[in-house]
Specification:
This protein has a single domain, classed as Alpha-Beta Barrel (TIM Barrel). Helices cover 44% and strands 14% of the residues. With 264 residues, it is of the alpha/beta class. The structure holds 1,3-dihydroxyacetonephosphate.
């Protein structure tokens, strides 16, 4: 049964486009999504295009209920950091959300927990909603250490974050072995990790605070495999990669989240 605190957690579906699409394809996708979003969806929706398309996407989505987020951000405000984008720049164009610590950033671009912690703090300081990603690799899962590993990543990522700020973070559990592989983590296993994340938040802050925080799942989500996950009270939404690149499929995933809200 859902209790009152959990009922207040609105589901959210976030599309992470990664380094995909051309400008015409991005525009086409977003126009379709915008018109779909005019139907009565009682869930939060966000898209995170590559930096270079953010301004155009924001422009098209002006006045719609879809939030636009960035896929990354540097923690410094300005300076000699070739190739980086600062919080002030994202603020300037009207961005409200930023993905931080995606496993591709951690693995390919070698971002560390302490850098990610600095980024989360910078995002909060500039009033963004940080979407903090955490997740274990296959070896860690096979050793039965997924919960322990993810709990440690969360602990490092939220170091020195106040009670006031912690509620503004959205957590996204994305097991690395499930990203882009077509192998979704079962609802049961995802729930176990999400519960472990909520427990650590409960320990560090309070039950009341932890119950307000949204914890998502991500990794090979499709409309055909996400129903079990999204209808669970411990999965507050999805961070969707490949399936967010097709308007119809992404809309079907949002539909699932919407139905899950209605059945609460
Ligand atoms: P896929 O949905 O393509 O597996 O990607 C998940 C992801 O990394 C979202 O951030």
């Amino acid at each position: 049964m859902y209790n009152n605190d959990i009922m207040k957690r609105k589901k959210i579906i976030i599309g992470n486009w990664k380094m995909n699409l051309s400008l015409p394809l991005a525009q086409d996708l977003i126009l379709k999504l915008k018109s779909e979003s005019e139907k009565k969806w009682d869930v939060d929706i966000a898209v995170c295009p590559p930096y270079i398309y953010l301004a155009q996407v924001l422009n098209i989505l002006k006045g719609s209920k879809i939030t636009v987020g960035a896929q990354n951000m540097y923690y410094k405000e300005e300076g000699a950091f070739t190739g980086e984008i600062s919080p002030l720049m994202l603020k300037d164009i009207g961005i409200q959300m930023v993905i931080i610590g995606h496993s591709e950033r951690r693995q390919i671009f070698k971002e560390t927990d302490s850098e990610i912690n600095l980024k989360v703090k910078a995002a909060l300081q500039h009033d963004f909603t940080p979407v903090l990603c955490i997740g274990e690799d296959l070896g860690t899962r096979e050793k039965g250490k997924a919960e322990e590993y993810v709990t440690q990543q969360v602990t490092n990522g939220i170091k020195d974050i106040s009670k006031n700020d912690i509620e503004k973070i959205i957590f996204a559990y994305e097991p690395i072995w499930a990203i882009g592989t077509g192998k979704i983590c079962s609802g049961e296993d995802a729930v176990k990790v999400n519960k472990a994340i909520r427990n650590i938040l409960k320990e560090k802050y309070s039950t009341e605070i932890s119950n307000k925080i949204r914890i998502l799942y991500g990794g090979s989500i499709k409309s055909a495999n996400f129903g079990e996950h999204i209808s669970n009270e411990d999965i507050d939404g999805g961070l969707v990669g490949g399936a967010s690149l097709k308007a119809e499929e992404f809309a079907k995933i949002i539909d699932l989240a919407d139905k899950a809200m209605v059945t609460i």
